Amino acid sequence: MNFNSTTIPPLLGPELWQFRQWSLCEELLISSQFPFERGRPFSQIKILGSNGPLRFSIPVKKHPSGSPLSDILMDHTQKWQNQIWRSLVTCYKKSPYFDFYQKELETLFYRRPEFLVDFTQPVFIWLLKQYFPKKSVSVILAPEFQSGRIEKPYDFSPEMDEKAENNLWKYARVFGQEFESRVSVWDALFCMGPNFGINKTE
Fold it and tell me: pTM higher than 0.85 for the full model?
């Protein structure tokens, strides 16, 4: 059977438009061999607070430019886990589904592996399974990357015209009157849970 598949990096804070793209694929392949870039959802999460969007990053140690995700080390000298988790609690404790996911997510967020990918990959796979419970999700290794499974760098900034904006799934949020499209899908998960449109239509 031929799958319509895409290869993606493990992301801490994937956005709604990315999940819209992935919903069209039957198979999702995860590789940690993409080159790490600062300012990307590899190690960032963007959520909505009472005063607007909030962005948090996992601090990483110095590394050569172009290093693959698999080589990036986390910097545990900073208390980033407390900052991110407490912000999630503060922003979403009144959302309909935060309590449902809280215990399991807190365990995932307070692990302390040495490498970034060992933290983000389990979180990312867990997140994909909440949204796409029937899809095939697999982790591929470096040799598959080198043999051509990944044909080009992952595009994080597609042109999002008015039509694409209107095609995003929309839902009631805890904060904000206008719909903010460029936030992490954690917002949708806590606000809509298993009722979110991805599970119903894809």
Answer: no
